[in-house]
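Final report, Chapter 2: Outcomes

The project's central promise was a pipeline that accepts a single protein chain and returns its three-dimensional structure in a standardized token representation, suitable for archiving and comparison. That pipeline is now operational. To close this chapter, we reproduce one record exactly as it appears in the project archive, with the input sequence first and the structure output second.
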Amino acid sequence: MEREKELAKLINVLRRTARMAIQAEWTGGKEDAASFCVDQYNRVLARLKEIDPGMSVIFEPLPAGSSFSVVAVASRQLGAYYEDEVGQGRESRQGGYGYAFDPRKFREFWERSGREFEDIGEYIRESIDEWLRHKKSATHGEKSTHEEKGPSEGAKQT
């Protein structure tokens, strides 16, 4: 595989690893998932060192037991090292944390579906008062039913 294509693939793996590590940390990922992310980072780093021996002075393998945060930071830093060579993503403007925006695709989408969104917005504006009245009456009805039964009768048994 030619160098540029392989670099792009490896950097894509790092970007996704960073994004998944952050998501796993936020959602309480398991220890085995963190271990997998560390191993994946270390495998990508080893391959990058084979392709570009000069970078081995800067980056070191992650120790076993590293947290999701450490994996995310290391993956982002290693990906950033090659950003000038591989760019920030194919035909998109990729920002931090894995966010990407392609203005051409959005324009195509809006030209096809923009009117539908306007219709949805109009429907929401027309209906919001009725929805709120319904929600208030339902909430008020639940409170009065709970008060009539008493706290022990209206509570769920677990």
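Archive annotation: The chain has two domains: 3-100, 107-151.
This record, like all others produced under the grant, will remain available to the consortium after the project formally closes.
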